[in-house]
Amino acid sequence: MKHIGKWLMMASLGSVVATSCVDEIKFGDSFLEKAPSVAVTQDSIFGKAEYARRFLWDTYSKLYYGIPTYWNDVDGKMNQGMFEALSDCFHSHNSWDGLNRHYYSGTYTAVTEDNTSETRFGFTKEETWQAIRSAWIFIENVDRVPDMEADEKERLKAEAKVIIAARYFDMFRHFGGLPIVEGSFEAENDYQVPRGTVDETVKFMTRLCDEAAGVLPWDLTADGESNWQGRMTQASAMGLKCKILLFAASPLFNDSQPYCTAEPQEAVTNHMVWYGGYKPELWTECLDACEDFFETLASKGHYELMKSAKTDCQSYREAFRHAYLTSQDNMELLITTRYIGKFNSWDAWKYYWVDGNGPVINGCNTPTLEYMEMFPMSDGTPFDFYKAVNENTMFFKDNDNNQPTRDPRLYETILVNGATYSGRQVELWDGGRENANSTHTETGMYATGFGLYKFYLEGANSLANTYPQWPYLRLAEMYLIYAEALLKADRTDDAIAQVNIIRDRVGLKGLRESGVDVSSSDKVLEAILNERACELGLEDVRFFDMIRYKRADLFQRPLHGLLIQRADGGTGSWSDKPEASRGPKPTQFTYTSFQLSNSGRSWWNGFDPKWYLAAFPVSEVNKGYGLVQNPGW
Q1: Integer Cα distance of 397 and 400 in angstroms
Q2: Rounded CA gap, 92 and 361, in Å?
Q3: Which residues contact 625 (CB under 8 A, 6 or more apart)?
Q4: DSSP bridge pairs for 572
Q5: pLDDT at residue 457 tops 90
Q6: First to last CA, the chain
Q7: Is 343 helix (H, G, I), strand (E, B) or coil?
Q8: Is 382 helix (H, G, I), strand (E, B) or coil?
Q9: Where residue 356 falls among pLDDT bands split at 50, 70, 90?
Q10: Burial of 581 (0-12, 13-18, 19+ CB in 10 A)
Q11: pLDDT (tens digit, 9 = 90+) per residue, 186-197?
Q12: How far does CA 332 lie from the centroid of its chain?
């Protein structure tokens, strides 16, 4: 057995022991204030309740936030790239991000992890270990705070445990089994902590969730929801446990064969990247955790899907937007993280995603035709491309934006031709006002014939005076996790019922009523995965669904865009012309699918299963503390 090197021991010493302030992160509206502007030590932090609380709030600020926000190793993500652009739903046309430089090109290796911060999830560069060590320091020291009640100490320790479990899960889905760290460690000591197995890592994470759930309040009603939203609750701990168990029970780790047979195989042999065989009881554990959660929800209430009393498309969209984007008065959020407090458009540099020169403008997440086709019609029936062309109902009836024809979530996730944008209809046809030549040249934010809408909306001004947050876990995902666990227990009707709850929120009929093929368990699973993609787009779900089900077929298939042209042959902006010379409003278009090639993905010509998990940095593996490399790397 070897030791964990100084990358862990020193990970957060500077930021959490001798810091002068904490980040300006706000939970709720105002509860987190800056720490004293003086140098502090552990004795001073844990000598006063106020400082101890702020220390934990600072640890919250190191939770995962999925959107790239600024230029640095952590906030920049894959140099302004996102995981979903590795899936079949989005493609990056931003040539300088990490996706194009390392992944699409197929040049990523374990050495890449040492040489750049542009990789999927930096094992040493993310704030995971800092957050974990900070949380353990808090757990080990909060009992000596003199002016804090015992009940509060136990509650805050439980919150810290959920933070540790969440940060472990963030790494687990990228790397598999991990070193199990049970304390903060002294920086100068050697500790015998080798890489754990998948089973050990899962049990460690779920144990922390169980311990926390036994202490935390179910919700924040007694604390004042609007002022404290963002703190962990019993619902957070129970929901996170379900999410962990879903990933663990899936075929990536839970199958009769390991996902990769390439050398080195030590991680396979020692069960660090799989369970060593198929274990149906893992699905039972996931189902039991889901039933515990929903039984508690039925008993204690509080959390609910955000819904609209009205049944028009715009109202459905607003409810859905509230669910994923808005933190205030949102009873759907179970775990939410913040990057900044109240966003102002003139502070776009703090939230580079929406900056006028930011990654979206440069085409970092252009929706694919394959993703557009996942969204059903407005009554829930599966989308049929050729039928939509023949009936002129691709997005709107007769291209009238007052009569949308599709799932309301489509318009909230993808900017499509004819949608309302800046008070008018967006022109995404070739030569239109927004799309002068982007699709024709396959460049920029409309390279695929669609634009990104979710989280971005209409740029900085549209997000002004909001509190941007990352929906790490919301109730909608819980229903879909439950559905999958029920399906694996051969309770197909119950599984379909959970999916229908999500569809009902946006006015879609149930799966069977809509004519969705649910004739076999495989078909129902596809329906569940499709629903997850539509409901949870750009929320770090689709990419990991493809990974946990080892969907080489989805990774390998070339992706497409949609070239939209005016049927009358006209070009240029209709809305910019003088009213007297506009002519009839274009309502007929031709639609041509084209294969994306700028840039192509190397795995379209052959997918290597080693890509399912990331590589550990070579420098860390070579330190000899037992960090065994993943197969293929």
Answers
A1: 6
A2: 11
A3: 2, 3, 4, 5, 193, 194
A4: none
A5: yes
A6: 22
A7: strand
A8: coil
A9: confident
A10: exposed
A11: 544 444 588 999
A12: 16
